[in-house]
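Notebook entry, structure prediction.
Reason for the run: the old model in the group folder had no record of what sequence produced it. Starting over properly, with the input documented here first.
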Amino acid sequence: MTVDEIMADLQSLGSESIKKLLLKHGVKEPFFGVKIEYLKPIQKKVKKDYQLAKDLYATGNADAMYLAGLIADDDKMTKADLQTWAEQALSTNINEYTVPWVAAEGKLGFEMAMEWIDSNNDNIAAAGWSTLANLATLKPDSELDIIAYRALLQRVVSNIHTSANRVRSRMNVFVISVGSYVNPLSEEAKAAAAKIGAVYVDTSGTACKVPDAVEYINKATARGSLSKKKKTVKC
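New structure, fully documented this time:
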């Protein structure tokens, strides 16, 4: 499939009601309002395509950018590719999900994430914390830098309440992910969450709720999350 063919399909699959909903959740124009379930047949047809993913992402259309993340050949993504994607990710579904997914499932996730969390750009910083959270759920504990993750937990404790809104949200998810999936740090993550307490995130009037980290970690570990990493974070 070509970019033009896919863009025509996306336009035909768009919905004004979905678009209105996504706008409330931080998705930025331009986009058509395509349900994720409608992207799946295109993903299945294309499978992985490094160049097509980059070309779709470059359109700036949020639907196409999300699809680009689903079909990206993660291991082929270069540092320059990932940096470009992070800088161009203005919608919350792209900077908090698409870009972190691709980074975490590729070879450069940790390196890029550690750079991104120091960014003064809130979207990029949020992408960094999301990437670190995804790595915690994907990588075997033996492949994680436990010392670095321990320091990151303390960084969150010190900075979460003074961080930008969406960065604060992703920091909370990071603590939950570490507590739920990283055996050596699970108890430390719960202790960090207890110190942090309630986390306030402005959800722009939507029904989204900020998860209580301690409660979420306890439920996840009770289900066996500490003994089973995810095969993929893309959905």
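Summary: The radius of gyration is 18 Å.
The old model has been moved to the deprecated folder.
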